[in-house]
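#help-structures
NK: newbie question, is this the right format to request a structure? protein is monogalactosyldiacylglycerol synthase
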Amino acid sequence: YSSFFLIQAPRLWPFSWWSPPKKLRTEEEKKRILILMSDTGGGHRASAQALKAGFEELYGDAYKIVPVRVLRQRIRNGLQKAINFATVVTDLTRCHNTWYYHRVDRCFVATEASKRQALDMGLKEDQIRLYGLPIRPAFSRKYPPKEKLRKSLQMDPRKPAILLVGGGEGMGPVERTVEALSKVLDVEFQLVVVCGRNHKLVERLKRREYPAGMQVHVKGFVDNMPEFMFASDIMITKAGPGTISEALICGLPMILNAYIPCQEEANIPYVVENEVGLFERNPHKVALIVKGWLGDQAGQLRAMAQRCRKLGQPDALFNIVRELSSMVAA
């Protein structure tokens, strides 16, 4: 899936985030950005919201996000000038060919595989930019060391931490994975379970009894996911491209336990072949992998964390935003 950007605007005043302008811009003086996306899942919204946040962080009130209905009315009345057109591809590897339109002004892709597909579809080298996926600005910030961060999250600073993510709707084999971890692991550890908006799952997990050495933190929908990811040692999640990109930035090895057929399927070999994680559906086998990583395979876990950081692209969002800004006529 992808997000589309159409850009047209009047002149931009000199501006930097650390030096705000002396007076606010009028509506006519702001650059106008139209974000089009398919609102069919959390990943779609996350990429669009990340880019909006990137513009706000870099340029403050220099830009205005334009509602679709406003542009539609301008086009109907013949008032809309020519608009620069860019595509931000938010799949990690191959995606549907229709996202690669040969007349686009700029096409932003996340990996070499996406770039090759764009070239195969007729785009030219100078139309393509390989920057990575646009991830929320919070993931590019500096955080305290892991032990200090855990204390601030009311976690044990010394116990290894596993992050189990069920997505915004708390879907997937979350309960069975929690049960498998409680039975298989024979070391002291802590588990953070993010259930999203699945309130019933939150209540069920909070009512469970756990072994003495297992500390469980059950969360619903959280708005500080970067902190939990930077504080963890292992993440168990489905193969969403945004979550994978976030984990790479955080240096967080992952076990992928589910995927949306076709749409997320190609993300699995990307993770496995780059040796930053594994794919396993079976909760018991997932628990065995975790046991090994926290035991005699700890060196493998450390090496994966290093590869994650090397592969992660924390500057992708701001590189894309700067390029989009440069496309707007002065």
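mod (FA): yep, format's fine, and the tokens are attached above. The chain has two domains: 42-137+314-328, 141-311.
NK: thank you!
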